[in-house]
Every structure is written in C-alpha cells, then in structure tokens.
Amino acid sequence: MMNSSGVAVEARGLTVQRGSRTVLKGLDFTVEPGRITGLLGPSGCGKSTLMRAVVGTQAKVTGTLQVLGSPAGHPSLRPRVGYVTQAPSVFTDLTVRQNLDYFAAILQPGRAHRDARHEAVTRALTEVDLTSHEDALAGNLSGGQRTRVSLAVALLGTPDLLVLDEPTVGLDPVLRRDLWQLFHTLAAERSTALLISSHVMDEAERCHRLLLMREGEILADDTPDALRTAAGTDTVEEAFLHLVDAARKENAR
Ligand SMILES: Nc1ncnc2c1ncn2[C@@H]1O[C@H](COP(=O)(O)OP(=O)(O)OP(=O)(O)O)[C@@H](O)[C@H]1O
Fold first, then answer.
1. What is the ipTM of this complex?
2. Distance from the CA of 104 to the center of ligand 1, in angstroms?
3. pLDDT tops 60 at residue 245
C-alpha cells in the first residue's frame, strides 16, 4: 500500500544530524511508484545519508518521512524495501546461490515455502545475469559481480521500493546498460519505485526524475528534459553546473 497520495516516499522537512554537522537540511521530496528517481550530487553532499534515512538505518532523523504509507524503518517495511549499499554485503565463504538461499530463508522461512524460495532465488539470479556463476564462492567474484549478488538479494522479495546506492560503480558498459534496462523493466512492469544514487552524470539521463543535491540541500527536482531546458544546456551535467554556480552566487550575496 502506498500512502494516501500514491507516492512511495514522502519527505517533509527531512533533517539529519551526523556528529556536530547538519548533513541534510530540511528536505522536501517524493519518490513515485513506477518511476526511477535519480539522486545526484558530488561526493559528500548527503546522498547515502538520505538513502539510509529512507530505509530506516540512519540515526538523528527529524521531520516527516513516510515510506509506502508507514514511518521510515517500520518493521512491516522490511520485505517491501530492497536496499543495496555501496559496499556489497555478501558472505564470501558461501556460493552465490547459498547467499541468496540464506536471505530467502529470512524473508520466507519454513519448509512450506521451499519451492517458492527456490523459484525466487532462480528468478533473482537470472535478473542480475549471474546464473552461470551460481556455484562460485562469493569471495572469488569480481567487485561488480558481488554488487550484482547484493542486488539479487534486494530483488528477492519483489520489493515495492528499491533503494540503490551507486549500483553501477565498477561495472563495465555492457553490464551497466543491462542493469539500467532491468531497472526500467522493474519500474514499468512491477510499478517498483526506484531511488538510485549516482555521481555519473550520463546515468542521470536514464532517470525519469532527478533530485540534484549539493551540501545537504536539493538544488533541483525535475525531469532531465526540464532541467536541461530551464538551464538552456545540452546535458544534465551542464545544467547541474549551471545550478551550482547560481547557488554559489546567491550565497555570496
Ligand atoms: N559519522 C559521521 N559523522 C559526521 N559526519 C559524517 C559522518 N558520516 C558522514 N558524515 C558526513 O556527512 C556528509 C554526507 O555523507 P554521505 O555519505 O551521505 O555523502 P554522499 O553524497 O553519499 O557521498 P559519496 O558520493 O562520496 O558516497 C559528508 O560531508 C560526510 O563527511
């Protein structure tokens, strides 16, 4: 169930304190079902912190943050939200399939669900194109392959919301293209809401909507087309730089 306005994530005045610093400064934004929302901005601007708040693992969060109709981090959201962190979380001493079997057993425990679990694991392996490596030890995989194991884990429960922190870092161009195709398929066919961070600006063009961040604030929230048109630029990267310069000038006044 989404919330009453049909959005997957709704943030109002979202503020996060880390140590003595205010890392997110009163953000308002939404993430829609069936849409890929890109979270872009330079290193350290607060992308991971925002994602951690959405999945409920960030401390010192204030403001309103509703996820799929419940407060962020509510236990009922666990099977409905998939999260892939920047550092892939896999057991290196288990094979790829054993990793997935383990997490599938947490989501759907018990003998009665054995066939459903097997099916879910096989589907997730196919989606991330790791079927041929299912018996390989996760510890022997490349960085990009481990990222895909983590992504497969996130896809196990067919989540309504997928939160992916820089999922294509270290992947070759073919895999990046294939993963973006998968993200679009999930949005179009399952109405999954995807929140994907990146600092690779060419990936911005593949998102339905972009949240451009800088120093804990959202500089712009629009479609790639609208951002380019408003800034009078050919690329989202140029539009972003234009917005950063405008914000700097404003601050200097
Ligand atoms: N434990 C902490 N205590 C204080 N400040 C922190 C802590 N962890 C992170 N920060 C600060 O919070 C800010 C946001 O960090 P965050 O990891 O969210 O950025 P990011 O945009 O995801 O960066 P990257 O693209 O490099 O991953 C950074 O300026 C960082 O220095």
1. 0.95
2. 31
3. yes
Q: Reply yes or no on whether the pLDDT at 179 is more than 90.
A: no
User: Mean pLDDT across the chain, nearest whole number?
Assistant: 92
Which residue's alpha carbon is nearest to atom 7 within ligand 1? 18
| pLDDT higher than 90, residue 171 | no
pLDDT confidence tier of residue 199, bands split at 50, 70 and 90: confident
Q: Which pLDDT score, from 0 to 100, does residue 18 have?
A: 96
Please determine, for residue 188, whether its predicted confidence score (pLDDT) is greater than 80.
Answer: yes
- Dihedral sign for Cα atoms in the order 48, 49, 55, 56: positive
Question: From atom 5 of ligand 1, which residue's Cα is the shortest distance away?
Answer: 18
- Token look-up 């993430």 returns 31
The residue whose CA has the least distance to atom 6 of ligand 1 is 18
Measure 49 CA to ligand 1 centroid, in angstroms.
7
Give yes or no for a contact between 96 and 175, defined as CB atoms under 8 angstroms apart: no
Which residue owns the Cα nearest ligand 1 atom 24?
A: 43
Q: For ligand 1, pick from 16, 20, 21 the residue to mutate: most ligand atoms within 8 Å of CB.
A: 21
Long-range contacts of 143-147, Cβ-Cβ distance < 8 Å, separation of 24 or more: 143/88, 143/170, 144/170, 144/171, 144/172, 144/175, 146/88, 146/90, 147/84, 147/88, 147/171
pLDDT (mean) for 38-54: 94
Read off φ and ψ for residue 22, nearest 5 degrees. -90, 105
For ligand 1, the distance from its centroid to the CA atom of residue 45, given in whole angstroms, is: 7
Torsion angle, alpha carbons of 96, 132, 159, 89, to 10:
30
- CB-CB contact of 38 with 198 (8 Å): yes
